[in-house]
């Protein structure tokens, strides 16, 4: 059945078919645009997820590096403490050695005095 167009004229079957084709083409174009938009949104979401994963990995690496640095610092402190303790022990041994030498010398002097 013929429809009236905008100007109030009756459309022929050919014109109606053309209009239907145009409407179908427009619908297809709209669907394609929607699909493209959805694909773009999905790509953006994937990119965001990848960026988040990369950031998390970087944070984990930084934390690991910090932990390693802390461990190294602790090891260095322990080594320094051990070196200080060894140095103190050497100083004590040296002091004892000097005292023994003085004692021996004093005893020798006493013997020499009474001999």
Report on this structure:
The protein is an all-alpha fold. It has a domain at 11-84. The protein has one helix spanning 13-114. The protein is rod-shaped and about 150 Å long. The relative contact order is 0.03. The model has no long low-confidence stretch (mean pLDDT 90). Residues 1-101 are annotated as: Disordered. Residues 13-95 have a biased composition (Acidic residues).
Low-pLDDT regions: none
Helix content: over 70%
Mean pLDDT: 90
Label the structural class. Answer: mainly alpha
Task: Quote the beta fraction.
Answer: under 5%
Total beta strands: 0
Order of H and E elements: H
**Morphology call:** rod-shaped
Largest sheet: none
**Rg (CA only):** 48 Å
The total of helices stands at 1
Tell me the span between the first and last alpha carbons: 153 Å
Region (Disordered): 1-101
Biased composition (Acidic residues): 13-95
């Amino acid at each position: 059945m013929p429809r009236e167009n905008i100007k109030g004229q009756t459309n022929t079957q050919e014109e109606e078919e053309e209009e239907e084709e145009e409407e179908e083409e427009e619908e297809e174009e709209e669907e394609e645009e929607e699909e493209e938009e959805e694909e773009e949104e999905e790509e953006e979401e994937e990119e965001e997820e990848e960026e988040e994963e990369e950031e998390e990995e970087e944070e984990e690496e930084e934390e690991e590096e910090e932990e390693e640095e802390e461990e190294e610092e602790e090891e260095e402190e322990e080594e320094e403490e051990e070196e200080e303790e060894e140095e103190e022990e050497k100083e004590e041994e040296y002091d004892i050695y000097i005292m023994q030498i003085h004692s021996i010398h004093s005893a020798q002097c006493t013997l020499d005095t009474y001999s």
